[in-house]
Amino acid sequence: MLASISEIQGAAIVSVEGLPIASALPQDVDETRIAAMTAAILSLAERAALELDKGEMEQVYIRGTKGYILVMAAGMNAVLIVITSKDIKLGLVFLDCKRACEKIIKLV
Q1: Which residues are CB-neighbours of 39 under 8 A, at least 6 positions away?
Q2: In what order do the strands lie in the sheet with 20-24?
Q3: C-alpha–C-alpha distance, residues 71 and 94, integer Å
Q4: Is 3 inside any structural domain?
Q5: Cβ neighbours of residue 9 under 8 Å, at least 6 residues apart?
Q6: Considering its fold, how many domains does the chain have in total?
Q7: Which of 2, 4, 26, 65 sits most deeply, having the most CB atoms within 10 A of its CB?
């Protein structure tokens, strides 16, 4: 995924408990801190989706002035987080993330 889309700046797979499983994040990023924050985002998003009767949470999309953060559930045990630049075509990255999550589900 990182090799095929140049606007993707990093990605990580983390456990739902907030522990890093695998990462390809920029060197200045603390993967343990990102893993913990991702688990917190996932937990809040799941609660909100349930409370507002929107079914199971599939993804969280955060847009900042410098880019995007995408958090996607990858089964019951893992979460995929992807960070991108602001110039990315989101449809393409959503498709790649969905495919990656399907592979992660089989592995974790």
Answers
A1: 14, 15, 16, 17, 18, 79
A2: 20-24, 8-15, 78-85, 67-74, 59-64
A3: 10
A4: no
A5: 26, 67, 83, 84, 85
A6: 1
A7: 2
Identify the residue whose tokens are 């990462």.
23
Q: Is residue 38 part of a domain?
A: yes
* 12 found inside a domain: yes
Structural domain containing residue 55: 8-107
CATH number at residue 80: 3.30.450.30
Q: Considering the entire predicted model, what is its pTM?
A: 0.90
Q: Is the confidence at residue 44, as pLDDT, over 90?
A: yes
Give the pLDDT band (50/70/90) at residue 80: very high
